[in-house]
Amino acid sequence: MTPPGPDQTLLLSLLGAGFATAFLHAALPTHWLPFALVGRAQRWTVDRVLAAVVVAGLAHVAVTAVVGSLIVVAGLALDQWIAGLLPYLSAVLLFAFGGFYLIRSVVRRPQLAGGAPLETPAPAVSNAAAFGALVATMAISPGEVLLPFYLNQAQGGVAVLAALTVVFALGTVLGMTLFTLLARAGWSVLRLERWARYEGAVLGLALIAVGLFVVLYRH
Questions:
Q1: Residue 172 resides in a domain
Q2: CB of 169 within 8 A of CB of 60?
Q3: Of residues 57 and 124, which shows the higher confidence score?
């Protein structure tokens, strides 16, 4: 059995980095806190909350894939004019997003949770409306930090882009599910929202590291 070639090694590394980035991106409170809050307010069972998480996560990744495909088409057209541009453009975007999240984590100071446990109010909207709102909220916002990965592999073909989408879906849904369940299980103990200030820094550093990997591997 022959060892994987350089291109295959790079692809596997980027797929792994894509999964990790999607998971870290899903750890941001906007990807799990609304589900914990709405599920609590609507008095949903765990199964209903997880159904909303999975559907919303897949919708989030689907929209990201559509936007990523459009970027790939535009990038390939541009690459015909400037050969070899795509990997470096991808790295620049990774650096930019990484720097943005890193700076925001330093400047932004989210309020820590504390005080008495929240009372559970009676549901104010129908379950269908709450479910649809959660899905729509995720669907209208593509995962911008995942888009550079599509650009980096624009010349890899449909199979490679499909593989990226699959690992993004796995990382996103797994992350959203895990942190939503933790929030439900430890609402008054873990206070997960206090970790918001660290998640941005970790995600920013991870994106910068992936960008460095892309640049260094090309030399």
A1: yes
A2: no
A3: 57
